[in-house]
């Protein structure tokens, strides 16, 4: 066994690494480089910022795609129901008077349908 085999040529240990490159730079230097990149993107026409109408349209399209997956929708609906039930149980156990009044003052579905447009 030679002496060079006992120490790794790649650094101190395979555990935590020291930051390299951009991550090792001074934060002010990072901002300076990022600023230059942003300006260059705008000059070349590659930078785009959504206006509210474009963002609304993109969100609508994404929502349509996601809602086509019935299994996914069922899964997230079940999680919501479980969370609601857990919250009600927790309020009942803690003796939270506001929570009990809110839970008992309206039918189970009334709160949900009041928030949803028909």
What would you note in describing this structure?
The chain is about 60% helix and about 0% strand. The chain contains 5 helices and no strands. The chain has about 120 residues and is mainly alpha-helical. The N terminus is likely disordered.
Chain-wise SSE layout:
Blueprint: H1 27-44, H2 52-67, H3 70-94, H4 97-104, H5 110-115
Strand content: under 5%
Percent helix, as a range, is: 55-70%
Number of helical stretches of at least 4 residues: 5
Report the major sheet. none
Report low-confidence residues grouped into runs of 5 or more: 3-8
pLDDT averaged over residues:
79
- Helix-strand category: mainly alpha
Shape: extended
- Straight-line distance between termini: 78 Å
Features:
5 helices; extended; 118 residues; disordered N terminus; 62% helix; mainly alpha; single chain
Short account of what is shown:
62% of the residues lie in helices and 0% in strands. The chain has 118 residues and is mainly alpha-helical.
């Amino acid at each position: 066994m030679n002496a060079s085999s006992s120490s790794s040529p790649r650094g101190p240990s395979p555990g935590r690494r020291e930051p390299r490159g951009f991550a090792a730079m001074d934060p002010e230097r990072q901002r300076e480089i990022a600023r230059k990149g942003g300006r260059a993107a705008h000059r070349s026409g590659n930078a785009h910022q959504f206006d509210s109408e474009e963002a609304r349209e993109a969100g609508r399209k994404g929502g349509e795609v996601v809602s086509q997956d019935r299994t996914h929708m069922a899964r997230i609906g079940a999680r919501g129901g479980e969370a609601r039930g857990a919250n009600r149980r927790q309020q009942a156990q803690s003796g939270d008077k506001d929570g009990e009044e809110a839970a008992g003052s309206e039918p189970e579905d009334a709160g949900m349908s009041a928030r949803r447009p028909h």
